[in-house]
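Subject: Protein record for review, amino acid sequence with backbone structure tokens
Concerning: The relation between a protein's sequence and the shape of its backbone.
How to read it: Take the token row as a discrete description of the fold.
Enclosed: The protein record, placed directly beneath this head.
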Amino acid sequence: MDNSKKSLPSLIDLRNSIPDEYFRPNVIKSLYFFGFDIFIISLLYISVYLFDSVYYLPIFWFATGTMFWSLFVVGHDCGHGSFSKSKFLNSLIGHLCHTPLLVPYHGWRISHQMHHRNTGNIDKDETWYPLTENQFNNLTSLQKIARYKLFLIVFPLYLFVRSPGKDGSHFLPSSPLFNNSERNRVLVSTSMWALMVLFLLTLIYMFGLYFIFIYYFIPFTIFVIWLSLVTYLHHTDVSIPWYRGEDWSFTKGALSTIDRSYGIFDPIHHNIGTHVIHHIFAGIPHYNLIGAKNYIKNILGDSYREDYSPILSKFLESSSNCDVVNDIGSPVYYKKANK
């Protein structure tokens, strides 16, 4: 549904349609999900030690990588302040979730908030925004490979260099991503990241590179693929409009994402597939998203975009057809590039 010509409800009206309790984090419930994810990850590492079988490794890799992604989603709540009302607790748990996954919590949190403030804006969005035909034509061969062939595994590289056309690093306090008041927090997260790298290097020294490859790097890669797949499909579809200049508004941008279902993984992923309501009101805890969604769907109707087609088919469709958008105009939609 193209919302550019529709009269959309105001954010105040949408907010007033949702009972207040959906916006209030329950710290006990939040800590439960954090603790549960840690518990399952711990069980998986105990199980791979007890079974000690090469045939069990693929199960361990997939399950552990999936739970790494779930843990990241808990940290994602911390980044939005929806884990608890305590900034200290949000920061503590956010670091405990993200540092083991080699993600600098504050650096990522700040750039992710930029994404939320500018969703659907071709010129200002931070992640998964489309390239124009002109930008595509100016990419190097290596950039095209990274953008269109390896995009499910380049998230760690994005943390270092961001996306084409954007400067800065998530690790450097001096990066243009951050203002002066944020630089000390960024330094804390980068220091925690460095300690995690040192810990992994110590394990390599003690047990060898093969040990880390089997028991950390492969599950970590599965986590990166989950993160990239889910976020890609939230923002990449031939039906999603992208806006420029004064044609963009926060509400239209928030509605330019799409809800997906990952089947049995939805509760494991903490319902992150319920994504449109999350972009409208990022402060709603993940365990309240489905309930809050039901209230605004009645108001937004078909402006609330959902597609519960099989994930594999939607991924193949989007990755085949969503290359570029027109250099001018608003709204614009993904199309194939002239390669």
About this structure: The chain has 15 helices and two strands.
